[in-house]
Amino acid sequence: MDALQRNIVLVTRRTRLDDLIARFNTIEQARFYVEHLGADFADYEIEHQIYREAITTAEATLMRFGRVQRLDRGLLPTFLFAPDALVVVLGQDGLVANTLKYLDGQRVIGVNPDSQRWDGALLPFTVGDLHVIAAETFAGIRSTRSVTMARARLSDGQQLLAVNDLFIGPKSHVSARYRIQLGDVAETQSSSGIIVSTGLGSTRWFRSLVTGAVGIVGGEIQPEVAALRNIGFPWDAHHLYFTVREPFPSRTTQTELVFGKIAGGAPLRLVSQMANHGVIFSDGIEKDFLEFNAGMEATIDVADRHGCLVM
Predict the structure, then answer these.
(1) How far apart are CA 198 and CA 147, in angstroms?
(2) How far is CA 47 from CA 18, 125, 139, in A?
(3) What does the pLDDT look like over 113-153, one tens digit per residue?
(4) Helices in 140-280 by DSSP H: which ranges?
(5) Is-contact 167 195, C-beta < 8 A?
(6) How far is CA 266 from CA 62, 178, 240, 262, in A?
(7) Chain segment 36-82, per-residue pLDDT in tens
(8) Given strand 194-197, what is the order of strands in its sheet?
(9) Are strands 268-272 and 176-182 parallel, antiparallel or unpaired?
(10) Does residue 288 surpass a pLDDT of 90?
(11) DSSP designation for 266
(12) Which DSSP string do the residues of 281-309 spell out, in sequence order?
């Protein structure tokens, strides 16, 4: 394909300094606020400068390979990616995950803009690597890794995808009430919510919940649970796991169906019994949510699309 026909999308985010200026209108007011609290404003400025330089360098590098469009993360939900687009994410990990759920198999290169500051399981490359990685990706000689996504579908037709995990539960610190069913097993529950994890997310929030549960129980644990606690499960596994947070037993609520695998033709089904505070959100982004209130049914299963990470 001719370079002029190649479609490259560079996904970026606002820095902490950008957010402070948006909040306080000027950099001087932002500086006064931060220093008044005894914090080091220079750290915000250094981070901002390094990130802006990374954007400039990445954009200049990518322009050698095709047409580059810069996209702020806030526009991801409404942006239409071309099927053949190469997507370069100048991350942290969370930005890569957030980008993947708006794609359908397009190749994604995760780039760490500041390796002295950020770790990144999804950021194997630096800006300096980008020339070689882009060339090899367009040549078709760079390997990729498939990422399974989770899907929540509501009975009113809405749906939400997740790269790491889905949270189903209360909007605030109150109890969630719902009916849960997996296969032929069903019960009514009261809890602080349910976490559904993909393989990619299995070493994050889900792992902490499994670790906490194992620590409380103590003693010998099942090999399946031990593996999930120690290494999670593969990114491309065609199944999900769920766990219920803080299930509460009572005369009207049960606590038997609190952990399990979602696979094949046996999705997890939930019917909300919450009057007005139920939500479903994905990947820790609380602003991107579906309302899940009384009578609404949610079906949780493996999504019919996947992520594709360049490695």
Answers:
(1) 9
(2) 11, 18, 34
(3) 999 999 888 999 999 999 999 999 999 999 999 999 999 99
(4) 205-217, 223-231
(5) yes
(6) 44, 18, 11, 6
(7) 999 999 999 999 999 999 999 999 999 999 999 999 999 998 999 99
(8) 259-263, 239-244, 194-197, 165-170, 278-282, 285-291
(9) antiparallel
(10) no
(11) B
(12) EETTEEEEEEE--TT-EEEEEEEEEEEEE
SS3 37: coil
Determine contact, residues 267/159, Cβ cutoff 8 Å. Answer: no
List domains and CATH numbers for the chain.
3-142 (3.40.50), 149-303 (2.60.200.30)
Q: For residue 100, which amino acid is it?
A: L
How far apart are alpha carbons 150 and 74 in whole angstroms?
Answer: 22
Does pTM top 0.85 for this prediction?
A: yes
Burial class (CB in 10 A: 0-12, 13-18, 19+), 40: exposed
Q: Are 113 and 48 in contact (CB under 8 A)?
A: no
Nearest-5° Cα angle at 228, 225 to 234: 140
CA distance 255 to 19: 43
Structure confidence by residue, pLDDT tens digits, 149-169 = 999 999 999 999 999 999 999
**Residue appearing with tokens 């505070």:** 277
Token pair of 296, please?
A: 């609404």
Q: What is the mean pLDDT of the chain?
A: 95
